[in-house]
Amino acid sequence: MFVKSVKRLRVMKSSDARRLAANRTQ
């Protein structure tokens, strides 16, 4: 369970970073 939560957090962080980059390019 702990590993799954860590992976989820990592995915959320990466998606957030991508979103921020997209907003900047716009």
TrEMBL record:
UniProt superkingdom: Eukaryota
InterPro entries with a match to the protein in the record: AUX/IAA_dom
Chief site of localization: nucleus
GO cellular component: nucleus
Subcellular location field: Nucleus
UniProt entry keywords in alphabetical sequence: Auxin signaling pathway, Nucleus, Repressor, Transcription, Transcription regulation
GO terms classed as biological process: auxin-activated signaling pathway
Domain AUX/IAA: 1-22
Entries under Pfam families matching the protein: AUX_IAA
Subunit structure: Homodimers and heterodimers.
Known function: Aux/IAA proteins are short-lived transcriptional factors that function as repressors of early auxin response genes at low auxin concentrations.
Family the entry assigns: Belongs to the Aux/IAA family.
Protein name: Auxin-responsive protein
